[in-house]
Amino acid sequence: MFSLPLKTRYALLSLVVSILLVAIKFYAWLLTRSQAVLTDALESIINVVASGFALYSIYLASLPRDENHPYGHGKIEYLSVGFEGGLILMAGVYIFYTALQALLHPHAIARPDWGVVLLAFTALVNLGVGFLLIRAGRTHHSPTLVGDGQHLYLDAVSTLVSCAALGLVVFTDNVVYDSAAALLLGVFIVVNGYRMVRRSVSGLMDEADEATVQNVVAELQEHREPAWIDVHNLRVVRYGADLHIDCHVTMPYYFSLEQTHAQVHRIEQLVNQEFAVPVEMFVHADPCTFAACSHCHMPDCPVRQHAFAEEITWTLDNVVKNERHQLPLDN
Length: 331
Hints:
Blueprint: H1 6-32, H2 35-61, H3 76-104, H4 112-139, H5 143-172, H6 176-204, H7 210-222, E1 230-239, E2 242-251, H8 257-274, E3 279-287, H9 316-319
Parallel strand pairs: 2-3
Antiparallel strand pairs: 1-2
Helix pairs in contact: 1-2, 1-4, 2-3, 2-5, 2-6, 3-5, 3-6, 4-5, 5-6, 7-8
């Protein structure tokens, strides 16, 4: 196990813990015959399936690029989150239905005290492992580990609600609390399943990561050089932990190919230093036009037609647009 990659170890830990806890929860259901406990146990089965798929997706995401996958295999991590969210969504609908039936036809609960003890133990374990996975996922930029950790958090919350329901049954001797808690859990699980699916679709559809784009823009603006007259059409795509960034940079048209290459290399180095994950960056160099003179403060420019007036500050709003800042594209 210790020879495995770090992310794989975390995913394997999640799978092993999920298998052990689902066994404990079903034992608690056999003792209590509680609808809330059964709901919690059924939701935990999803943990096992999802953790297994997460482990496989992390393995695939770690594979190097090949001819069929020139951008790598990182997108599988978003698919894993969507798969897990879809399972949670379906389980939530089923749980809501069974809880509604139990509310209409309540039945007695046996040994609720033991149920509380066993479920409380599983909740503490899920909270601990969930926190560990989320922290590891954010550290290693793995959507799969973050999603798996959030699912364990969700499972822990479900378990705590089940514990509270059993506690109310013990003190009030009213089994309606058990069915009502299961009904509430069904709604809670459906909502969170939808959110995970939504996050997965966002990643697969390359939805803009505003925070990452803002970091790139801020870095370019802070270290801006006179030869970088304009930046536009900046795009950031995330492939699992890896980033793909491309943009257009306007430079003096009289620069030689060697000079332009040196400036492009400088920009790539600057952006790579900003992120702790692998970054693949492509810079398309555009030649300047005389219309840009009033915004360019290139020193000793031999072809300047207009005096420098003001520098246009690069922001999230203007850098992502496919147009030279306030300049017609055809000039």
